[in-house]
Write a structure and sequence with these properties.
This protein has 172 residues and is of the alpha+beta class. A hairpin with a 4-residue loop joins strand 3 and strand 4. It is 47% helix and 15% strand. Strands 1, 2, 3 and 4 form a four-stranded antiparallel β-sheet that branches. The radius of gyration is 18 Å and the shape is globular.
């Protein structure tokens, strides 16, 4: 299945990665016992992922969009991490670009914040679906998905009719 997806995206799958011994075994271990999110911070100390969904047809344009945003901010495209997970028989994909940074480097962190915000805004503008938008994107996301926003509020009302559970914390 992975080879089919890679071929359709014109991406070459490799059994090994430069500087990464036993890549295949590590991938299988990750599938059996996922620790991926914990691993991200090892690259530079911190990372900023964008969590969204899209269709298969948008994967290439979205990766180009992210690379273009990165180029405008002098961030190397080779340093962008991507996680793409086919869902719904490959019709929908979880799409997560991630930007690595050194949290001790204020200049890099500040530049990363600008890149992160621009990339997220650009994905929203191109139709990416954010099912759990950060507060900084919530207004933009919910303005485009009013029925979704209303349903989330209805569910919150059913679960918390007295408004005591994390008031204002659901980016509503």
């Amino acid at each position: 299945d992975l080879q089919d997806v890679a071929s359709s995206l014109q991406v070459e799958l490799k059994a090994t990665c430069a500087g990464l011994a036993n890549a295949g075994a590590r991938i299988l271990r990750e599938i059996s016992c996922p620790q991926g999110a914990e691993q991200h911070n090892r690259c530079r100390g911190a990372w900023n992922p964008i969590f969204c969904y899209t269709t298969r047809g948008n994967l290439k344009p979205f990766t180009r969009l992210i690379a273009d945003c990165a180029a405008r901010h002098n961030y190397a495209a080779a340093d962008i991490g991507y996680f793409m997970l086919p869902l719904n028989h490959g019709g929908t994909f979880y799409f997560e670009p991630g930007f690595y940074r050194n949290p001790q480097d204020q200049k890099e962190s500040s530049a990363m914040e600008k890149l992160f915000l621009e990339a997220g805004d650009a994905l929203i503008d191109r139709g990416a679906f954010f099912d759990r938008p950060y507060p900084l994107w919530a207004e933009k996301v919910y303005a485009r998905a009013q029925a979704y926003h209303k349903k989330i509020k209805d569910i919150k009302e059913m679960v918390d009719p007295n408004h005591i559970l994390n008031p204002g914390k659901l980016a509503l």
